Amino acid sequence: MRITDVRLILTSPGANYLTVKVITDDGLYGLGDATLVGRELAVATYLEEYVIPMLIGRDPSAIEDTWQLLGRSAYWRRGPVHTTAQSAIDMALWDIKGKELGAPVYQLLGGRSRRGVLAYSHASGIEIAQAVDAMHEQIAAGYRAVRLQCGVPGLPSTYGVVSDESDQPRAPHEVPYEESWNTAAYLETAPKLFAAARDAVGMDVHLLHDAHHRLTSIEAAALGKSLEPYRLFWLEDPVQADDQTAFRLVRQHTTTPLAVGEVVNHLSECQTLISERLIDYIRATVVHAGGITGLRRIAAFAEPFGVRTGCHGAPDMSPVTLAAALHTGISTHNVGIQEHGRHTSTTDEVFPHAYTFADGYLDPGEAPGLGVDIDEGLAARFEYRRKYLPTTRLVDGTMWNW
Ligand code: CS2
Ligand code: MG
């Protein structure tokens, strides 16, 4: 079998998604998610100009060799554009392999290790009471784990809090819109949010929270400590992921479990975090950390250190990523949890899929390959438009991490 073509499909049924379709001379094709939020065309150009010419004529079953080729051929290696392209091709080749063998990809990865992958969804509200109500809705929808975010008094908008009731990310503006951030007010508010949530549901539901890269290490340590009575499943991105040694200070001060890594593209970027047990969950995801091949390497490295996966799965990555994450997640030993940012119903129509959610768990299903497809006719109806993620400044105007 040979690769004869690789097509790029850009569509925007609720968010911008870039999909690769790897086509073979046997008529089989495989899909991969190549979405890099806010920089989609950078990945598309990289694929078109540099990656796809290297793939035509290659054997699609040579998944490892192709992963190595795409990883090493750039010379200037890694980074989100390069690695998202490598990840997309990797997902597509696993999809083809599964279809060729008539098996769901998880069977090629070692079979099932669990009956389902524990999932968490998102609940938010501008006011604490609204966030707690939204949490009840997610529990009623079957989730046993919920990420909880609320507004910060004095700030017009806050990460993770959508202004309308639909729990979809607020579509980033045409040009970056600027939020402002007040760490002191946030550190006052977060413990109140979880005190209210625990009053409402007790300790039976896993509660998660995303600090989204905004704190210094001592601020993160203080937050972790203040949240200990509420027994979070995890506190995510307390400090910037690339400040690996900052986690040593956070770890010294708090037993609140820590999660980081959605921005990680390669094992070298989280090796210290894992080998020094500075975190409890690694958030690396198939679309940005080297595909299934890359994620498995990170998970295998993490296993002896007792670090589990908690793959990023926001709705601004496509159902192809969620499908690939679930095939990896159902079989990998040290899986913690999978983020389940619900896609819009239109997105689910564009990307019909075999994965299911029931009773708090996700399952990849039994369809051959990744079990996800793309309706190209429908996809064509949702034209791509550049959409940035927001930026944020501290109250004194200093540019900060959104
Ligand atoms: C967030 C994401 O889901 C999460 O944990 O960090 O929503 C993140 O902000 C977006 O995926 C960025 O595109
Ligand atoms: Mg996050």
Q: What is this structure, in a nutshell?
A:
The chain is of the alpha/beta class and 402 residues long.
Question: Descriptors for this entry?
Answer:
binds D-mannonic acid, 2 domains, Enolase-like, domain 1, single chain, TIM Barrel, 13 helices, alpha/beta, binds magnesium ion, 402 residues, ten-stranded mixed β-sheet, 36% helix
- State the major sheet: 10 strands, mixed
* CATH topology-level fold name of the largest domain: TIM Barrel
Q: What is the helix tally?
A: 13
Write the H/E string, N to C: EEEHHHHEHEEHEHEHEHEHEHEHEEHEE
Residue-averaged pLDDT: 95
Number of distinct beta strands: 16
Q: For the terminal residues, how far apart are their CA atoms?
A: 45 Å
Indicate the CATH class of the largest domain. Alpha Beta
Q: Hetero groups bound?
A: D-mannonic acid, magnesium ion
Rg, nearest Å = 20 Å
The low-confidence runs, each spanning 5 or more residues with pLDDT under 50, are: 164-170
Protein name: D-mannonate dehydratase
GO molecular function, one term: mannonate dehydratase activity
Domain Mandelate racemase/muconate lactonizing enzyme C-terminal: 128-257
Pfam family, one: MR_MLE_C
